[in-house]
Amino acid sequence: RAEDVKRVHVHNSLCGDDSLGNYIIHLYSWHLLAHLASKPFTFTCADTAGNNNGGVMALTQIKEKLADLTPLEDMEHYTVQEYCAIQSKGQFWKSKVGGFEHAHAIISKGMETVAQSKAGQSFQADDAVIHLRLHDALKPTPKVGSQRGLFQHSTYAKLLKQAQEEQKQPIKSISLVTAPFEEEGVRVKDLEFLERSKMIALDLQDYLKRQFPLATVTIHNSMEETPVTAYARLIR
Cα–Cα distance between 56 and 231 in angstroms, integer? Predict the structure, then answer.
């Protein structure tokens, strides 16, 4: 019975940083479930073959119960039963309940730890950072309403200029965080998109240099760039 449950604890034996985006979404959904049930939430990783040492998932572990659960004021009528019904149909990702602001609030707790790690503090933070999803984002899909694809270059410039106006100071450094261009750092299924991805990234870099002449625009995607460093660039 729900009233007999004292806490929600997730222990993952495989916490490597491969397919990290999918792991984080699952972590958010578990944390949301705990909140709806008014139970403390903890999350730990097993150290499997050294997979987790210093990785993003290892750093986002929640080993002690959170003092304050994330507030979800506009979800007063959303229940555990409704959550489970959505999950059982495999539709959690499609549900508007939860919202990006709540996902951000929950995930950012762990991401703050990533940013404060030794690797996360090993570089100078930039004024603006863009996560440029390439490779499989270029894959054709027959699904109607697919969210795959890329923004136009002008969209990035518009958003950055808006941020510039809000901050009332010029942007002097822009980072593009994306996947490696070396074949050995690319998944086999993404190799067919490698050259096109490289062309898009370099073209965006050149475009932003022209739009922001005072800014240094750098692509960060070397083989030495770890997931922790990449995530920390986005957070800092």
Answer: 8
For the chain, the C-alpha Rg in angstroms (whole number) is 20
Instruction: Identify the residue whose tokens are 């958003």.
Output: 159
Q: The tokens of 223 are what?
A: 């083989």
Could you tell me if 236 and 123 are in contact, meaning their C-beta atoms sit under 8 angstroms apart?
Answer: no
Contact between residue 174 and residue 212 where contact means Cβ atoms under 8 Å apart: yes
Mean pLDDT on 74-85? 66
The whole-angstrom separation of Cα 189 and Cα 13 is: 26
3-state secondary structure of 229: helix
For 143, counting Cβ atoms within 10 Å of its Cβ (0-12 exposed, 13-18 middle, 19+ buried), the class is exposed
Residues 6 or more apart whose Cβ sits within 8 Å of residue 184: 223
DSSP H helices in the chain: 20-36, 56-59, 80-88, 99-116, 153-167, 194-211, 227-235
CA gap 153, 111 in Å, rounded: 27
pTM for this one? 0.69
How far is residue 95 from each of residues 83, 156, 196, measured CA to CA in Å?
Answer: 9, 27, 33
Q: Where are the beta strands (DSSP E) in 46-179?
A: 128-131, 173-177
Check the CA dihedral 13-16-22-24 and report its sign. positive
Contact 179, 172 (CB under 8 A): no
Q: What is the three-class DSSP state of 234? A: helix
For 51-77, the pLDDT digits (tens) are 445 566 666 666 665 545 555 555 555
